[in-house]
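Researcher: Structure prediction, please.
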Amino acid sequence: MNAIENIALIIIAASIIKLVVLAINPKKWMNFSKAIYSKPHRIRIVGTFLAALVLYYLIGAGITIVEIFAVMAFMACLLMIGFASFGSELIKKFKIINIWKDYGYYILIWVILLLWGLKELFF
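Model: Predicted structure follows.
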């Protein structure tokens, strides 16, 4: 198996485990999620590392940043379906956050990726 197939296998296995746990004992999954997300600083560090690692392997396998953005569009559509049920709660949350303070790091990553994508498309 190559790197892309390994990444896909990890996502498939993790998703199956999540769905099985949710089907059998949803509270167990929620407790796991609470434990993971109770330390947001650690999650940012781990998430950044994993995102960089996956991006490295995708680029190394010959997938372009433009193709990655196309796949992200697909994933965004799927996430939109999942988050649709929480629209009013998300809107309330957005009214009380400081977008730059709370999401500045995340925005910076997106700006870098967007500029990279634009460079590949037009230059």
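Model: Residues 100 and 107 are 8 Å apart (CA to CA).
Researcher: Thanks, that helps.
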